Amino acid sequence: MKIKLGIITPETHMDYFRIIEEEMRPLCQFRFLTISNFRETKDVYLKNLGSVDGFVISGRLLYESIGMECLDEKVPVHILQDNENLLYRELFRLLVTEPGLDISRIYVDYAYIIDSFREFQKYLTHEGKPIDSGDLLERVETMLENHITLWEEKKIDLSITAFGHFVPELKKHGVRYILIRPTLENVKETIKEIINEITILKLKNQRAVVACISAKTTQPPSEDELHELKVLVSRFLRSVNLADTAQISEGFVRLYTTYGNFMKITSNAHNCTLLEYLEEQISDKVKIGWGSGHEYFQANENATKAHRQANAFTGNCSFFINENQKVIGPMRSMNVIQFSEQGDPEIIALAKRIGINNINLQKIMSYAEIMRTNKLSSEDVAQCLSITVRGANRILNKIEENKYVQPVFEKRENSKGRPKKYYELLFLDKEGRKIGK
To answer: pLDDT digit string (tens) for 145-165?
Structure first.
């Protein structure tokens, strides 16, 4: 299936894309979304968001006019940059071909956003309205007004612009102008870059993912209970417009899907909406293990491992293990703990010196980094390992025996009573990051 690219551009850039279109036809399909002014950009982007795989946008300011809050991080956007070298090249050409041209009587609209060009601004006209509004669209409108007003008042002999949608208005008012555009090579390179990015994303999103789902009871689930759980999972899938691929297998309900769908269901591996849905429907503890792999066999194995992690955790929870054995969970909030079943050699060696389990050490380190501190209480360790406070104290005492922590007593903000005992982890910095990371 061909990649679909939305090209948001003024009409003045269309000749480039028409030249490239035939060359790129085997790889992608262009959808031309021409705009006549900045205010159209946001609506054009949002209207076409669901029908293309990515966007190419003519210029940084055109991109900024969409608004960061509207951009969908799952749909790549590449920008045709306003290259300052093109401006320098054009000014040099003018100095050579028109030696009588007074450079101070040139209005360059986008020079103010180019840091390295500021030293040249003193040679340009300083008349016209200052471009200092906090509103992007107002700044753009001021630039267009300056082009026309300065020309009509005979204060400039030439306008240089990077905004193709200004061209019709400049022509209408008889303004002598030069339009700075990216080179054809730059446009080709930008198109190739976004095609590569989208291709990689598509391959990644098609990776196999399996979910291993159970509703934990004191007895093994009966066929009726498994069927009821499968019905609920199927109902959830339909509610989020996904195909019903749930099956009963080996005493679990297993869901077969893709990495892209997994990211949708789990809010990018942070919060599992399937778990939330089942919690509302079932009184028993819900455990979900997600696994990804290059094929369903590997994904199924990782899902089973992830379910074991979920079983070891108190309460309803969802864990994920990818093909590199990286573990993420419990997916209940934006601050999920991450560790690896294989483990980093340095951390494995540190765990051996400290005298504790490698995975427990990874969980503690991940929790400390989330909390942005190297001082944890027994309750903190109990929470991140899903064990009792007594069990957490045994682990902390073991680390202390090997001189990798030192006890400190602190009174934190909003805390009452006497200072509380914390354990300062000496292998982490004050922000909870591994020293030397």
So the answer is: 999 999 999 999 999 988 888
